Amino acid sequence: MESNNKSETAGKVLRCKAAISRIPGEPLVIEDIEVDPPKAWEIRIKILCTSLCHTDITFWKMKAGPAAVFPRIFGHEAVGVVESVGENVEEFTVGDTVLPVFLPNCKECSDCKSQKSNICSIFENKFSPEMPRDGTSRFKDMNGEILHHFLWVSSFSEYTVVDVTHAVKITPEIPVDKACLLGCGVSTGIGAAWKVAEVEEGSTVAIFGLGPVGLAVAEGARQRGALKIIAVDLNPEKFDIGKKFGVTDFVNPETCGEKSVSEVIKELTNGGADYCFECIGLASLMQEAFLSSRKGWGKTVILGVEMHGAQVSLNPYEFLRGRSMIGSLFGGVKPKSDIPVFAKKYLDNELRLDEFISHELSFQDINKAFELHQEGKSLRCIIWMDR
Which CATH number belongs to the domain containing residue 227 in this structure? Predict the structure, then answer.
């Protein structure tokens, strides 16, 4: 691929393969599609590899509501190479290695400039199944039917188009399968430990849910020198996995007897964990995590997305005793500035990423990744586009 800002295919409609979700919960169908050239402030990316995140599964199963939009191209954790750029694009050039991200980062609004937030005040509220600026799609099937985008990434396609606010330039030195992990779950967990909770050396941590996000929280807490990292999960097999990321203790709610999880954690930490992280998305666990935190300064970080409409019920008196609860999207990570830092830490052997990859598949076998995830056998499955 040429290293300047012009490629042979620039400005042309590209035909490529994509895995299309046409019916909620049904296997994806790999078809030929057409991908339009990028418009102003957009780039077209040749996807090298992608992975499957739980969020993809959640929306893939969604049969009703405004977010249930089909046919659609899912996928939002990926790495690729810039194939062409639209007008007004200065940040990227053809041949750049980039990581598309679901969270916009314009770098110009007051929120993007502030260290207190990673929520872009210009683009964050423009929720759409299409491109963020003009609300149109860049995908069509071979019958001319519009194919909808997903989280402004849609990486289950050999080529995709993203807005410049949804892309991060990364060093080509990092292996692309490892870089792929930084697009959502792993960055969320590490960022939550580093940027939201600001875990410090010698502290105690409790993690509710030991999926990829929870494991990433453990890795972030381990990096910061946490003394005790407690994992709460129903699957005892996850303890061995968690040990690789620094987990020191494991609590299975089904084997606590008459004690609540919060009581067990208080015993393990002599009064409650300094930091608690809810990584599942259940209101009941959010409440239990809060009650597991230490009086006086305990901090609970909510990372899971509650999809059942349940409310969190807490006694206001508990807040008066110094506990706090805070929500976090993408672990407080500012994509354009923080993800390159994570990549460098991996290259410097300061951050574990390899252990998150449990499976690798070819693009043709993408539905196998869905099966492995639903069977609980996969952490992160890397899907290679050229295999």
Answer: 3.40.50.720
d(CA 288, CA 278): 9
**Burial letters 89-124, b for 16+ CB under 10 A, else e:** bebbbbebbbbbbbbbbbeebebbeeeebbbbeebb
Total of domains in the chain: 2
Bridge partner residues of 42 (DSSP): 163
The parent domain of residue 373 ranges over 353-386
Q: Which residue has the tokens 């979700």?
A: 21
Reading the block at residue 194, the tokens are 């580093």
User: Are residues 375 and 311 part of one domain?
Assistant: no
- Tell me how far CA of residue 304 lies from CA of 46, 114, 148, 206, 310, in angstroms: 31, 24, 25, 14, 13
Instruction: Read off the amino acid at residue 61.
Output: K
Q: How far apart are CA 127 and CA 147, in angstroms?
A: 16
Structural contact between residues 31 and 142, judged by C-beta atoms closer than 8 angstroms: yes
Report which DSSP code applies to 370: H
pLDDT tens for 26-39 read: 999 999 999 999 99
My answer on whether 295 and 380 are in the same domain is no
Count other Cβ atoms within 10 Å, centred on residue 181: 26
CA distance 58 to 171: 31
φ, ψ of residue 292 in degrees (nearest 5): -85, -10
Residue 3 pLDDT: 45
What's the whole-model pTM score?
Answer: 0.94
In a domain, 376, yes or no: yes
Residue 79 has pLDDT above 60, yes or no: yes
